[in-house]
Amino acid sequence: MTGVDVLDVSVSALDEAIGRARAGSSFLRAKLGDAPVRDAEDFARLPFTTKQELRETPFLDYAAVPAERIVRIHSSSGTTGKRTICAYSAKDIEDWTEMFARCYRFAGVTEADRVQLMVGYGMWTAGVGFQAGSERLGAMTIPSGPGNTELQLELMREAGTTVFGATSSFALLIAELVEREALRDELSLRVGIIGSERWGDATRRRIESGLGIETFDVYGMTELWGPGTGVECSLHEGMHVWSDHYHVEIVDPETLEPVPDGTPGEVVVTTLTKEATPLVRYRTRDLSFRYAQPCPCGSPYPRIGRIEGRSDDQVKVRGVIFLPAQVDTVLADVEGAGSEFQAHVDRDEAGRDSLVIRVEGGDRPGLAAELAQRFQAQIGVRVDVDLVPMGELPRNAGKTKRVFDHRDH
């Protein structure tokens, strides 16, 4: 039996939510059986649900409401494989909108702000989620979409944009452009809401220093409504997750046993209020940890750490697990190093693995050697460093790929 993790919600709320999911979804009914959830041990006996199962199950077979009650569908970006299609009822849209508005409030955004959304629209959840939350808050909303940096800056100046939403990669691109063209005094920016990809402290510092703003990491994924299901508060000590809408477990990705508070593991979610595409012990593949203590900000919502990577993206180099977050940790502390990087894993003819980290950096003497030493200490294997000029690595409006495994498996 799988061990019991901490329950942030009542057993009765879990039992009710799982009962609705079973009753409405033929897939979940067959998967979960009919045993009630009377206590934490019963909940821990339920099987996990995986992304692969959602991908392979037609969304109408998975849905827990009739097709007539589905008002919208979205799909994931497909970064890690086939797109995952998820259905939404009118109540799902309403709940998601209010959750995202809550994120804006946690970031100090008010109806007096002017919010420019440089995020993707269409089947992806980002654009419509960011927009609905901003409009619910009552802020002036500017749906500029991704790309076209010159248009973005023109709109910022003309509209007096104070808040923007973007991926970390695109926010970094905007920050570098503003610095290069000395435009900061022409802008009114004060807050950035950043989501959709893992990003570290080095990138955060570059964005904040370049634009003179405070940034907030927002949590979410298509399966879990979309972005807006969690956010940092002004203390920036983890992300608050909305426990009135879903329950979070942290488990060891190999054993699937719960891990202690403070220990990194895989985030597993069970939705409490989602109607059309409910999730029961869904393995998100996101790697994070749970904070044991309530946040000093006074919020009742529990916290998880900022996402460190994905369990299905991590690679082993000479038997050692490597995660991009380890690179971020080093770059944030080394003077002269940029925040953008690529990690290339390869294998020679003798079967020996190699790890080359390509990093943007200045011309400070000894920078490459210092980075190589620090990477080796942080990761646990020898690392070769390839320094490239600032701005050479790609900045994308969407998600940026940073780990390239060239080995034949």
Automatic annotation (TrEMBL):
The keyword Ligase applies. Its EC number is 6.2.1.30. GO terms for molecular function: nucleotide binding; phenylacetate-CoA ligase activity. Pathway: Aromatic compound metabolism; phenylacetate degradation. GO terms for biological process: phenylacetate catabolic process. Residues 62-270 form the AMP-dependent synthetase/ligase domain. Coiled coil: none annotated. Residues 319-407 form the AMP-dependent ligase C-terminal domain. It is an enzyme of class 6 (ligase). Monomer. Belongs to the phenylacetyl-CoA ligase family. This is Phenylacetate-coenzyme A ligase.
